[in-house]
Amino acid sequence: MSDKVQELRPKAADSEKITINLGYVDLGHVDLLVQEGFYSNRTDFIRTAIRNQLDRHNDAVKQSVARHQLDLGLRQYSRQDLETVRAAGETLHIQVLGLAVIAADVSPELARETIASIHVLGALQASPAVKAALSDRIR
Question: Which residue spans traverse the membrane (predicted)?
Fold first, then answer.
């Protein structure tokens, strides 16, 4: 055995799993396109369809992001970030389109003291304890 064993940190997921219900005929059409080689699998078809719709509505999305003052993409909140907010006597109103991450070392108490509201369109990653502490502030 080697003394140089390193524990690997689990990689944060860069996607979120969703489930959809699809009628049998639509599903058959998807399977036919996969079978004919247009797409590698059902997931490839669905991702492509979603991206096409997002591209189609790109201008409306941009306007909405600006109107709602959403941070776009990945936004991370570290313990140090929140301690700085607390020291300044301020609170955060988190608004993210994408992924919001509250660091694992953030205590539920610190989160409640510093985060006034959370609105995430996409996904929120935080410890179960922090999510529970902020449950009345998450919409």
Answer: none
CB atoms within 10 A of CB 82: 21
| CB proximity list for 78: less than 8 A, separation 6 or greater | 103, 105, 106
Strand, helix or coil for residue 123: strand
Q: pLDDT per residue over 111-135, tens digit each?
A: 999 999 999 999 999 999 999 999 9
Reference 119, options 64, 68, 63; nearest CA is: 68
DSSP 31-98: HHHHHTTSSSSHHHHHHHHHHHHHHHTHHHHHHHHHHHTPEEEEEEE-HHHHHHHHHTT--EEEEEEE
